[in-house]
Design goal:
mainly beta; Tumour Suppressor Smad4; three-stranded antiparallel β-sheet
Length: 134
């Protein structure tokens, strides 16, 4: 269990007492966020999703914020170091170090297929509209 003190645009938001904290975008880490109770977010919605992992407090819920905001987190706990996973890259960081998450100024082009759209992907992967009772 660690404590993750979180700020949005330098305004204190919360100190999450949890196993971790997911900061996702509409195109990255949303599946991991979803598995921890986070929302499904449409591509192009321009936001960040803050989802606690196994929080110790039951009234802590995922939060969707504009990607125009800057998020700062500071992790503390019993250990002197902690792990940060960024797009499948894992790094060991010293406790008390402040990390800043913000939208980069450049954009990348995404490949979209004409045969599959976001709605049909959701229906297929999450089995929406199928009656599995029989």
């Amino acid at each position: 269990m660690i404590t993750i003190t979180t700020y949005i645009n330098d305004q204190y938001l919360n100190s999450y007492w949890a196993d971790g904290l997911i900061i996702a975008t509409p195109t990255g880490s949303t599946g991991y966020s979803l598995s921890c109770g986070g929302p499904i977010v449409m591509p192009g919605s321009e936001n960040f999703i803050i989802t606690p992992v196994a929080p110790h407090n039951l009234n802590v819920r995922p939060l969707v914020i504009s990607d125009k905001y800057e998020i700062k987190v500071k992790v503390e706990g019993r250990a002197k170091q902690f792990l940060v996973a960024l797009d499948s890259r894992i790094q060991t960081m010293d406790a008390g170090l402040e990390l800043t998450i913000k939208k980069e100024s450049f954009k990348i082009n995404m490949i979209e297929t004409e045969t599959q759209d976001f709605s049909s992907t959701l229906r297929n992967k999450l089995l929406w509209g199928l009656d599995k009772r029989n």
